[in-house]
Structures are given as C-alpha cells and as structure tokens.
Amino acid sequence: MSTDLALWARLRDVLMLQRRETRLLLASVTADSFGTGIFTATSVLFFTTVRGFSVTAVGLAISLGSLCAFFLGPRIGALADRIGPQRSLIVLFGVRAVGYGLYLLAEQYWLFVLLACVVTTADRASPAINQALMGRLFEAKDRATILGTVFSARNGAIVLGSLAATLPVVTGSSALYLVGIGFNAASFIVAALLVARLHVPNEEPAATGRDKEHRGRVSPLRDRRYLAITVVNGVAQTHNTILSLVLPLWIVHATSSPKWSLTALLALNGALAMAAQVPVNRMFADFSAALRASALGGAAVCAACLAYAGAGAVGDAWVALAILVVAMLAHTAGESLFIASTPLSFELAPKESLGQYLSFYNLGRVGQDLIGPLLVVGPLVDRGTPVWLLVGVVVLLGGLVPWALLKDDALATAGRAAR
C-alpha cells in the first residue's frame, strides 16, 4: 500500500497534478476530446444516413471547412495575441458549442456547409491557442511535460468517446445520433467553464534576446526558419494520414494479416502513445533535443513505411501480422518523437506574437488534412511498395531539415551547454 502511495506521489509530481492549472487544463481537454470522440465516430454516418447527404457532399463540406481554417487560422492567432489566449479559447469553445449544436437543425445542405466551415475553422484554431495558453502558464521542461500530458489525456478521452459512440452506430437510432451530437456541443461549454477558472498572468513574459531580434518582424512568413519548420510539420503529419486513412485500406486489402489486426494495431498505437508521450517529451524538452527528436521521428516513420510495405509482400497471415506490429511500434515512436519536437515552434516564436506563430505552425497539419489524402492515400493503396518507399524517404528528409538548418543556432548551442 505504501509503495502504491509512493508511486502515485511520484507520478503526481512528474505530471504536475498538484498544480491547479494542470488539473483544469486536463479536465478541459478531457471534456473537449470525449465529445470529439463521439462526434468523429458518428458524424459521417449521421450526415449520410439520417440527413441523407451523399458521402461526396459530406467530404466536400469538410474540405471547404479545412480551406477556411487554412486561411483564417493565423488571423485568429494574431487576434489571440491581442485579446489573450484564455479569452480567445473561451470564445472558440463557445463557437464550437453553438456550431455543433446547430448541426441538429442542419437539414439543408447549404446550412451544413456553412456550419462545417465555422466549426472546422474553430476546431483547427483551438489547439494552437491552447498551446499559447500553456506557453503563458508553463515554462521550459514544465511546458514539455504539460504538452505530453495533454496529448495523452486527449488520446484517452477520444478513445472513450469512440467507445461511447458504439450504441448509436450499432443500433442506427436517429435519436441516439442526435444525443451524441448534442453531447459533443455540451462538452465545449464544460471545457469553456473550466478554462475560465484558470488564473492566467495578464502581463507578457519578459522579452529575451531572441524576442527582441524578432521585434519588427512579426509575420512568420518573413521568418525562413519558422516557415521551414511549419512545412516540415506538414510533412511529418503524413503519419496521421497513414494511421487514419491508409492503414484500414492497406491492412484489409493489401496484406494477408487477419482482419481483426486493424483494431488491435490501432489500440496498440493508442496505448503506447498515451504511455510514452510524457517521458519522451521530458527527454527532448530543450531546443537542441527537439531538433534530435525531429530527426529521429523522421527515421522512425521511414522505418515504419518500409515495414508496412514488407507486410504487403508476404503471404503468411501471422508473418504479415508480426511485421505490422513492428511497423506500428516504429510508427508510434515516430509520432511521439515528432510531437516532442514541438518546443521548436515555441522557442523560435517571439513571445508577444506566440498565438499568431503557433497558429501558423498549425497550418502544417491543416495543409496535410487538405492535400494529404489526395497525395498519399490513393497512390499508397494503388501502387504499394514504391510509394511506401517514397513517402518514407520524404518524411525522413523532412525530419532532418530542422536539425540541418538549426543545429548551430544559438538556442541549440545554449541547450547543449546547459546539459
């Protein structure tokens, strides 16, 4: 019993659970992500079977929403720098609550498209503003820890939300679909109330030498280094496209692995990512270490791509499954390492424009959502091994770019000297 208490005390200290800010942030992320898990698992079925929209029409609306998010995201980030990340995040939660709630009334396609543009823009803008808020509340290694903890909490809550969505999916009940969408809308109200309870410093953090260097250059478009890591982030996010869109098709249609292996592998990914993210983030907390994390992440995803290709080349079901397990281990390692490279986006941004810069950095993921399916899904499934090799090499080179560009940067040398 005393061992259990000591272990819990150690875990609480590492995760900073004794801090009120940590508990409130985790609670808000859990509420937000649980509702998102329900909506993600049921939305396409609801809009196609209950509302009667075609799959193509739903996909077009989502793509238009992502396009709006791509253009409006940095502007929302710049606004957050002026009014503060806490207030901005509360407003975004409110927009999401109203927008998702109105989906219950969206029987006309034009209204569905309009709402898709509004909620997708708010959805894509929220993570960067949430990170800017964490940047205001936490510093250095503490920030790396909270980023890892939030990621783990978000993954766990989405999984639980997806499980909760089993009932409407299995029964096909229109009423249960509506309840799920309503629950998702309500989850944002809960998240907003929790964020509102945070005590966030009003003053900006003291400007460092790097911040002063950035003054007068407030657009990330004028910062070649920031532009480079944003593009690299978009390339790195290929691992998400592979995980969510390619693997289901590849495992079922291109490998001899048992069909049940898909859900087993995705569960393995979720469990390992949740367990590994905090220690990996803490291991690569400073700027120099984050550069290494990016390079290692590229190598790990490249290895995963090679293994996925190998799984499609063998005829034995159990051998294919074993290769897929190795691939998923490498894939999860790459995913965790790329997330651990997030300090690059904080350290290269001026503190007074953190929201704008982080929102710009987030365009890498939004861009992947827009063009990734077109460039990756079809070619990988249709062409197989040659495209797996090409994708692996591209992600590997992308992961190496920050290290090659910034390994001699003052922030990197300062990080190495401090260790």
Write the element-wise H/E pattern from the N-terminal end onward. Answer: HHHHHHHHHHHHHHHHHHH
Structural class: mainly alpha
Number of strands: 0
Query: How many helical stretches?
Result: 19
Mean pLDDT: 85
Strand % is under 5%
Q: How far apart lie the N and C ends?
A: 37 Å
Question: What portion of residues is helical?
Answer: over 70%
Oligomeric grouping of the chains: single chain
What does the overall shape look like? globular
| Main sheet specs | none
How big is the Rg? 21 Å
Low-confidence stretches: 205-217
Core attributes:
419 residues; mainly alpha; 19 helices; 83% helix; globular
Structural overview:
The protein is mainly α and 419 residues long. It has helices at 2-14, 20-50, 55-83, 85-102, 109-137, 140-164, 166-171, 174-196, 209-214, 224-236, 238-254, 261-283, 287-311, 317-340, 343-347, 354-361, 363-383, 385-406, 410-418. It starts with a helix and ends with a helix. The model is unreliable at 205-217 (pLDDT under 50).
Give a brief rundown of this model.
With 419 residues, the protein is mostly helical. It contains 19 helices and no strands.
Layout of helices and strands, plus pairs?
Blueprint: H1 2-14, H2 20-50, H3 55-83, H4 85-102, H5 109-137, H6 140-164, H7 166-171, H8 174-196, H9 209-214, H10 224-236, H11 238-254, H12 261-283, H13 287-311, H14 317-340, H15 343-347, H16 354-361, H17 363-383, H18 385-406, H19 410-418
Helix pairs in contact: 2-6, 2-8, 3-4, 3-5, 3-16, 3-17, 4-5, 4-8, 5-16, 6-12, 10-17, 10-18, 11-17, 12-14, 13-14, 13-18, 13-19, 17-18
